[in-house]
TrEMBL record:
<feature type="signal peptide">
    <location>
        <begin position="1"/>
        <end position="20"/>
    </location>
</feature>
<dbReference type="InterPro" id="IPR013830">
    <property type="entry name" value="SGNH_hydro"/>
</dbReference>
<dbReference type="GO" id="GO:0004622">
    <property type="term" value="F:phosphatidylcholine lysophospholipase activity"/>
</dbReference>
<keyword id="KW-0732">Signal</keyword>
<dbReference type="InterPro" id="IPR008265">
    <property type="entry name" value="Lipase_GDSL_AS"/>
</dbReference>
<dbReference type="InterPro" id="IPR051532">
    <property type="entry name" value="Ester_Hydrolysis_Enzymes"/>
</dbReference>
<dbReference type="InterPro" id="IPR036514">
    <property type="entry name" value="SGNH_hydro_sf"/>
</dbReference>
<keyword id="KW-0378">Hydrolase</keyword>
<protein>
    <submittedName>
        <fullName>Acyl-CoA thioesterase-1</fullName>
        <ecNumber>3.1.1.5</ecNumber>
        <ecNumber>3.1.2.-</ecNumber>
    </submittedName>
</protein>
<feature type="domain" description="SGNH hydrolase-type esterase">
    <location>
        <begin position="57"/>
        <end position="219"/>
    </location>
</feature>
<dbReference type="Pfam" id="PF13472">
    <property type="entry name" value="Lipase_GDSL_2"/>
</dbReference>
Length: 247
């Protein structure tokens, strides 16, 4: 069902990613909640139907579109890909660069309560900044658990896009950090992308110069890899919210 992550090249690249991430300045913390609209250089070609269900992309810089034009962010390109494939969806960008799981937990209620429409699905993409700062995995797990619990309380299905710890964080850290996403996906019956960055790992041509974030081509590679899972999660969420009557 879920393909295992290829360990050796991924872990080697993660080590470089972690070193690059720890040595750079933290990305801006300004709130960047944006819709996937057309932007110069990266037009969204497919119109979004008025009745399209909403997917809220709630995460950090990997969703926000760090150093990319607005139309090149993951939510913008995912929206375009879904609609081009005949899957009606409006993807709202609730990514904040530099967010830890703790910061995201604090803004969750505000973000949800300021949406014009209740999301049919919330994608949660957090944890990378926790790892880069060496925050305790137990803290990361507790914050993500609280986020998922609140979404469950509100009756909103969830999809997790997971993260892996760099091996130079130490074996104990890796052993505590990496299982967080599969365990929480199982606990909350959430869809799971095991490692969000896998399509760009060890592929510098798909990365920004910081060797952490995807460039525009990298975003498209991630969209290609994740779109089928997102479409499946959305279909399941819509069925849960509007079950067909029994014959």
């Amino acid at each position: 069902m879920r393909a295992p992550v290829s360990a050796v090249p991924v872990l080697a690249a993660l080590a470089a990613l972690s070193l690059a991430g720890c040595s750079r300045d933290k990305a801006p913390d300004a709130l960047e909640t944006r819709g996937a609209t057309t932007a110069a250089g990266a037009p969204v070609a497919t119109a979004v139907p008025a009745d399209a269900p909403v997917i809220l992309a709630f995460g950090d810089s990997l969703y926000a579109g760090y150093q990319l034009d607005q139309g090149q962010s993951y939510p913008a390109r995912l929206q375009a890909a879904l609609n081009a494939a005949g899957v009606k969806a409006r993807v709202i960008n609730a990514g904040v660069s530099g967010d830890t799981t703790a910061a995201a937990r604090q803004r969750l209620a505000f973000t949800l309560e300021n949406q014009p429409r209740k999301p049919a699905l919330v994608m949660v993409g957090l944890g990378g900044n926790d790892m880069l700062r060496g925050l305790p995995p137990a803290q990361t797990r507790a914050n993500l658990d609280a986020i998922l619990a609140e979404l469950k309380r509100r009756g909103i299905p969830v999809m997790l896009t997971g993260m892996l710890a760099a091996p130079n964080m130490g074996a104990d850290y890796v052993a505590a950090f990496n299982p967080i996403w599969p365990a929480l996906a199982k606990k909350y019956d959430a869809a799971l992308v095991p490692f969000f960055l896998q399509p760009i790992i060890a592929r510098p041509a798909l990365q920004l110069p910081d060797h952490m974030h995807p460039n525009a081509q990298g975003v498209d590679a991630i969209v290609t890899a994740t779109q089928p899972a997102v479409a499946q999660a959305l279909a399941k969420a819509l069925h849960q919210n509007n079950p067909s009557p029994r014959a």
